[in-house]
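Pasting two entries for a bug report.
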Amino acid sequence: MKGNAIIRKMIESDIQHLSQGFINQGWPSREEILIRYFEEQESGEREVLVAEVEGAVAGYITILPSAKHGPFAEVYPELSDFNVFETFQNQGIGNLLMEEAEKRVKLVSDKVTLGVGLHSGYGPAQRLYIKRGYIPDGSGVWYRNQPLEMNATSQNNDDLVLYLSKEFE
């Protein structure tokens, strides 16, 4: 199916379609976040790439010109909020989104960064990032935007993150 996938910049009508995609897989609506992303794209603060397959939105990824959190904050661009809807997973769409995002970042930086959650819901993304050449930065696990000290307690939720980077040759 990935042969029919196109990657393009987000358009305003994607907000409703993407939000519905989350609802269809049992997640809460993300309409408010997606509206903010679109507004940030319009002002140049963020770029949002959408995967479309035969007229249906399949997922998206956002590009921040400068990371907002973690060890790369204000230093390198960051890929953020990467989602491929369950019905479109394992078809190469995530790779296509990553490929296009990396291509765009490579025009302005020799390195791209990202943070990935540690619970099993992030398993497919973790595997994809490693296969694409991302490596941990060495600062350890972060929790609620702070490095997590040894023996500290945390909750295995979306706030528990490992930061990775990839250098372009």
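Entry 2 (this is the one that rendered wrong in the viewer):
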Amino acid sequence: DAGTFPKDAIEAWDWSGIPLNRESMGKRADRDTIQYRAFQHIEGEFDLVFNDDGHGEAADLVALKDTEDGIKLCLVHCKNALNARVSADIRNFYTLCGQAQKSMAVKHGGLPRLYVDLKRRQETWTREGSSRFLKGDIKLLSYFKDKARRAKVEFEVVLVQPGASVNTVTPEILRLLATTELFLSKTTQARF
């Protein structure tokens, strides 16, 4: 029994000015998107933030921080709001929770494997005149890959869904979130 996710653990963000159906910032780093607003919320906490949005992604945003104890790896999954509005619809969370659960493959694959995937995806964008690095660069990513061979990696998964609010979230949604948290905790020791 996973119970229910505590409402007070849900962090409310300001979505004013962001169309709730515009998820991806794309190669132009479109600022009027859910993904870019998520980047704005986390950029101060991390040394490197990578836009991994697209087919085969680890997450919409991959963030890394150098810590005293090792490395903090955070995968941020974003999803647009159903019908571009805030509601109590659990469908806003099905895909998002599924993406979060697939994150275990990233954790178990390790940072050296993640480095190869991110580097390849960056090279594709570089050929087209864009960069996936929102903060940091390939040299810093390489540093994290090398450090991961001898350091502990703390794992965190963040779900971003502007189609819900603390006031409208239902017990069913809270159970779904709790189940996802329990799965991640048991399989990857992730902070959710």
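Dev reply: Rendering is fixed now. As a check, the viewer should reflect this: The chain has a mean pLDDT of 96.
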